[in-house]
Sequence to fold (713 residues):
Amino acid sequence: MMKDSNGIMTKTSERTMLINIGPQHPSTHGVLRMLVTLSGEQIIKIEPIIGYLHRGMEKMAETRTYLQYLPIVDRIDYLSGFFCSYAYISAIENLINTDIPIKAKYIRTLTMEMNRISSHLLWLGCYLLDLGATSPLFYTFIEREKILNIFEDLTGSRMMYNYYTFGGVKRDIDKELLIRIKKFSKEFLKAVQEYEDLITNNPIFLTRTKNIGILSKEDATEYSITGANLRACGIQKDLRKDSPYLIYNNLEFSVPTGTISNSHSRYIMRIKEMKESNKIINQCTDWLLSNIEDNEINTKINPLTIKPNGAALGEVESTRGLLQCYIEANGTEFPNRIKWRTPSFYATQAINTIAKGFMIPDLMAIFGSLDIIMPEVDR
Amino acid sequence: MFKEFETKFDILNKTIILPNIQEFYIKKENIKEVLRYLKNSPETIFSRLDCIIAKDNSKNFTVSYILNSDTYNTKCAISYYLDYEEAETVSISDIYKNATWDEREIYDLFGIKFNNHPNLKRILLPDSFKGNPLRKDYIANDERLKWNND
Amino acid sequence: MNIILSTIDAISNWARSNSLWPLTFATSCCGIEMMSVSASDYDIARFGSEVFRASPRQADLLIIAGTITHKMAPLLLKLYEQMPELKYVIAMGACACSGGMFKNDSYSVVYGADKIIPVDIYLPMCPPKPEALIDAIRKLQSEIKKESLTTRKELIAKHKSKLKIQDDLDILIQEDVNIFKMGI
Fold:
């Protein structure tokens, strides 16, 4: 018999312990704080505390014009800057009712799929670093540096691109860069084969991730989880196939689904998604190489004359799920309200349901496989 | 798709969110019945709640719920108005589970209270922060802001 | 006497500057560039930072990579106070130098990490390229080589006088303890 914190006598087996996994931690993917209630080593309850990176991006939109807000949009999810840019720009293009030329659509698709690959490569290296394996980080960063060098020659920056604009893209893509992309795509297939040989059938990896962190279909719909976490359950839902935007109608690719969603199957989903993105990149570069003389990449719009009226919703299938941007305009050059619906916010909310009942060393294996990033949660 | 829904409840206004989302304005008291009907009725199975949006129009607040249907692959929006003085409404966390954190964020940034919420407290800002920043009449008067001087 | 001290100075400064071990403190986008510096293409282990330590008791360089908000500021101060002497601080990125692009409008961002703790090297750009971070660490190493054993106490006292939010710290720590108690 022992005394607990309120001075009441309880049996030793009923005592629980409260641990703080603080904001500064090498594997919480940013600044997230978790209060974990344990009984022995088993998790009873997790309460996440967020807000350590809240920078006030939604309030900043009310004192800036539409063009002045555009560089800030990349920082909502810094690993997939092209997707956030596209969600904001497609909402505005709906409001002012313009078309974009077809070469700009192909360039946008090509850059977004390459961004998807680079984000998944970083996720793979960091997930295995959380589990204790330090080598795959160095392998995956080699391929990621090749992609970032291509982006630097195209847009001028490695991470915050600011490349899309109202009505198209800012600069044209030339022939040498397209040949470099084709060469990268051939080397990438061999690299993915190397990662699979190294990781997928490793017995330590299998014991640490199979049957851990199971997400059922009802929970996934109740908590509105989207992306690879949902497709691993067996529900086939992908915005690129349900309501296609840009030129996904003309491309041949498939969307992988699984049967049961645990940490291991979420890992397999993302490896398959990388291979499908590789196919899309090949098809886009073939089209662009055969239409190299086409010079129209931008319908010229004067940004000082953008004063729309009404409400619009721009959405995109991002690397982590469904990303939406809601804009309400009132006829002046400043928007009235901009709201971001980000997928990581809802995945963090569901972590209490997913991780209940497992041991504390499994917590990082579950948390890492959900692919959560903190500036999306806090904005 | 919304024929039975429009005959059953009284709708004050209808607008469109571009590109093709229908928005219905209703009265504040009917919100729970409307959402339960839309979730369970076989002509519109809105099984997931995408997000909750709150806006400040300088005269009153607007709260909108964006719903998404897996089977029919469509979206719709349900909205109502709230006055400045009595900014109180009811929580829908027993119908859709992911509404808890959205409602906490709206309480934090706008000051709107939700009754019957399991855990209503600030989520993004520190607990002792003064003021609700996203209101149009917000004046910055918290003590922490004096660290930014000089 | 001075000949002996200056030789000991030279040896001790050489040993300390060529083995700076950083702490993993990354809040935002600049953290990804810090990870790229430690990975294969731009390798920082050849300059002496062999490992990134997770605990502040075992590190002697704090690279502030990312935006500091009002909720995170007292925790940054606590981390700085837990590190053993002598310690150095690099403010990486525009947000840590001066508030960055959030300077005019934001209601919850601290405009620069030097409002909270003393900073030795400022590194602008948004985000800085990995080569720029290596350049900053080399500059810090050349600054360390100019130090001397006789001025060590004054250096520590000068850093302590610059800690700014000590008065508010008690209220903030009490708030922290209250969050913890509610979980029980």
